[in-house]
Amino acid sequence: MRALVFGADRVPRVQRVPEPTPGSGEVLLRVEAAGICHTDHDILHGRYPAALPRVPGHEFAGEIVELGHDVTRWRVGDRVAVDPLVACDRCPNCRRGHRNLCREIAAYGADLDGGAAEFAVVRAQNAHAVGDLPGSVAALAEPLACATLGVRRANPRPEARALVLGAGPIGLLLAVALRSHGVRDIGICDLFEERLTRARAFGVSATYPAGPDLPQQLLADHGPEAGRFDLVIDATGRPEVVQQGLALLRDAGTLLVFGVCPPGSGVTVDPHEVYARQLTILGSFSLAGTLPEAITTLRTTSLPAADLVSHTFALDEAVDAFHRIGSPDTLKIQVTP
Ligand SMILES: [Zn+2]
Ligand SMILES: [Zn+2]
């Protein structure tokens, strides 16, 4: 079969590799769509632990075409989205219920071959039925499941005023997760007017241009109530933006650190302010059993989730696709083998 392969020399190539066969407890998928994201960049360049060579792709969906000999929960022809995390279920973090923080964690697309290929093998228990959802929408389930975990951890009230920093695909998926959680007042902020225009068309409540004076600007333009938020979510992974997020909180507000900041970076936190204003600072890593909820959200959301896929590339063009990630004229980029 053909697959995108991250070589041991850290060069991505589309090449022929042996078609995988499903072992005990596994199924073989014919991949319909695989999203690519910044994590794939980090895997390629050694910023996210993975052994190369590797077939990347941790956001994928497809049709089951072959079952391992002992698999009874699926039938050939079932269509599924994949939870990429394989936890050990034995380590202290797994036993405490934090399987996403498993100390022995493996993930399809990082430690195990993933979905940027014609076919992929996954454990039967990592597959979740998507019914008749289009493959491109079903492949949004994984990143939406990450957003869903973040929103679940922040647990905002429906009347909360929320602001997402960053209007890329993850920022808009956070808006989908917030809306599904019942939050109606969802603002979004970005450096690029192009992305704010897309966010308005997508259906967020308000958009704000980012800049070094964002907190002061919002305060000046909207006053101390409307210029502050109950929940601020960073979807940029930039420490200076996380710092702004802290300054944008109302009393009793929550900052959700969702974007991936560089390890060892820092922000300044005034512990007196955290105490006196009763602030909450939360983290959220990957997904944790939230994929089924994400699939339900994709079925029921009033926001046009399918519009999040801005560019689709054939597998042979996967290397070009990979180089488009993060460009302001793109949202989610997918490969359709
Ligand atoms: Zn991803
Ligand atoms: Zn574990």
Q: Topology, please?
A:
Layout: E1 2-6, E2 12-16, E3 26-36, H1 38-44, E4 59-67, E5 79-82, E6 85-86, H2 92-95, E7 106-107, E8 119-123, E9 127-129, H3 135-138, H4 141-154, E10 161-165, H5 169-180, E11 185-190, H6 193-202, E12 206-209, H7 214-226, E13 229-234, H8 239-247, E14 249-257, H9 271-276, E15 280-283, H10 291-300, E16 309-314, H11 318-323, E17 332-336
Parallel strand pairs: 10-11, 10-13, 11-12, 13-14, 14-15, 16-17
Antiparallel strand pairs: 1-2, 3-4, 3-8, 3-17, 4-5, 5-9, 6-7
Helix pairs in contact: 4-5, 4-10
Residues 87-88, 90-91, 93-94, 102-104 line the site of one zinc ion (ZN).
Describe this structure in words.
- The chain has 11 helices and 17 strands.
- With 337 residues, the protein is of the alpha/beta class.
- The chain folds into 2 domains: 2-139 and 304-336, Quinone Oxidoreductase, Chain A, domain 1, CATH 3.90.180.10; 145-283, NAD(P)-binding Rossmann-like Domain (Rossmann fold, 3-Layer(aba) Sandwich), CATH 3.40.50.720.
- Strands 3, 4, 5, 8, 9, 16 and 17 form a 7-stranded mixed beta sheet that branches. A 6-stranded parallel beta sheet has the order 12-11-10-13-14-15, sandwiched between helices. It has a two-stranded antiparallel sheet with strand order 1-2.
- Helix 11 (318-323) links the parallel strand 16 (309-314) and strand 17 (332-336).
- Helix 4 (141-154) crosses helix 5 and helix 4 packs across helix 10 (291-300).
- The structure holds zinc ion (2 copies).
